[in-house]
Amino acid sequence: MTSSPILPTNSRTNASRTITTSTQGSTLADILERVLDKGIVIAGDISVSIASTELLHIRIRLLISSVDKAREMGVNWWENDPYLSGKTQTLIDENQKLQERLQSLEAEMRSLKALATSQLDLSAAEQPKDRSRNPPISEDENHPEID
């Protein structure tokens, strides 16, 4: 009796044994999920030089991650940025109050200046215009010597 090796009768069994790689079956959503879960850093330097003299140097650092991953790494600058948080309206209100206060102070300064100018005009009008009638007092008349 001769024995023959057992050969697969169905070709589908070989197709199911293929090795799945990380790039197979990855959709954009899968890739985005991995990037946000792990985070990714892109870094680069750009230098512009003429005759070994550096004119411009730009350092680019880009971090892409989820908010939770960023907080875990200690990156949370957006929490204190007033334009990205709810503090925007507070800053607008505070700015408006300061503008109103500045306008009232400027109006008060203008009224004080006008009052001072009018008092100077009144005191100038009360003084005699003809000085020949009232000659200036000499120092001897102001401080007579005591004998």
Automatic annotation (TrEMBL):
- The reply on keyword Flavoprotein is no
Q: Which residues form a coiled coil?
A: 88-115
Under which name does UniProt file this protein? Gas vesicle protein
Identify the InterPro entries for this entry: Gas-vesicle_GvpA-like, GvpA, GvpA-like_CS
Highest lineage ranks of the organism?
Answer: Bacteria, Bacillati, Cyanobacteriota, Cyanophyceae, Oscillatoriophycideae
Q: One GO CC term of this entry?
A: vesicle membrane
Q: Where in the cell is it found?
A: Gas vesicle
One family name in Pfam for this protein: Gas_vesicle
Family membership? Belongs to the gas vesicle GvpA family.
